[in-house]
Write a structure and sequence with these properties.
CATH architecture: Orthogonal Bundle
CATH topology: MetI-like fold
Helix content: over 70%
Number of strands: 0
Shape: globular
CATH superfamily: MetI-like
Mean pLDDT: 82
Radius of gyration: 22 Å
CATH class: Mainly Alpha
Largest sheet: none
Strand content: under 5%
Length: about 250
């Protein structure tokens, strides 16, 4: 509750500072005021909410699929022979080195302009954002803990769910928070490269008709989608990691 209040105060201060700066600057085409965006939303709320709903679907599905693939991939890597792990990881590094805008263009060509291509692009962004840190954390478990599992003849599943996952959870949640923003960026990039609806399409279309206010409004809604999904991840973190030092510090500050 305290965190929600602090974010509300932060948002109010940003909006107030933005409004004042825009009025003083006096160039609404370059820096539209929040009040102008509010009027734009009032006049076109059905269109804006419809596009925001479409982009939200792309972001959420891309984040879920991309995160799940990254976590399963990181888990699979550690049980592979070292040579196979290194080979597959080089493939991942190579793909990650490829400009994502090129991958986005290809995804639109291969899978069309609809929801599927945007979900795939958002999932790719999320996958690479989550995989590296999670894999590193999985392979960084203390040797003494692994030896203890050997002593108790732990099964593969017991090693995963009683050792690896609990040890890596704090870092996994850090990666997931990065994956949230990556999913938002991926969905918007996908819409910019080929779409007929969504906030990315709204940004592109509004730019062509020089409607800067609507461009800013779409960007604000993208940020709100990221905030809401980040909040959901934070709630999951609090539920699963009440024992972690970061959670105790947050509780102490309430």
């Amino acid at each position: 509750m305290n965190e929600l209040r602090s974010w509300t105060i932060f948002a109010a201060l940003v909006v107030a500072a933005w409004e004042i700066t825009s009025q003083l600057y006096g160039q609404p085409y370059l820096l539209p005021a929040p009040s102008a965006m509010a009027r734009e939303l009032r006049d076109n709320w059905q269109l804006v909410l419809s596009y925001a709903s479409i982009t939200s679907q792309e972001v959420i599905l891309g984040f879920v699929f991309g995160s799940a693939a990254a976590l399963l991939g990181a888990m699979a890597f550690i049980w592979m022979p070292k040579s196979l792990e290194e080979f597959l990881f080089r493939i991942v590094v190579t793909l990650n080195s490829t400009p994502f805008v090129a991958l986005a263009s290809l995804a639109v060509v291969w899978f069309g302009l609809g929801l599927r291509s945007k979900v795939i692009i958002a999932a790719l962004y999320t996958f690479f954002a989550v995989l590296y840190t999670t894999h590193k954390e999985f392979v960084s478990v203390e040797t003494i803990r692994e030896q203890l599992m050997d002593i108790y003849n732990a099964t593969w599943w017991q090693r995963v769910f009683l050792l690896l996952v609990p040890s890596a959870l704090p870092i996994i949640f850090v990666s997931l928070k990065g994956g949230v923003m990556a999913a938002v960026n991926g969905a918007i990039v996908g819409e910019l490269y080929g779409a007929s609806e969504g906030l990315g399409y709204m940004i592109l279309d509004s730019r062509y008709v020089a409607n800067t206010t609507r461009v800013f409004l779409a960007a604000v809604f993208c940020t709100m989608i990221g905030w809401l999904l980040m909040g959901a991840v934070t709630i999951g973190e609090r539920l699963l990691l009440p024992w972690h030092v970061s959670m105790r510090k947050d509780a102490g500050g309430v």
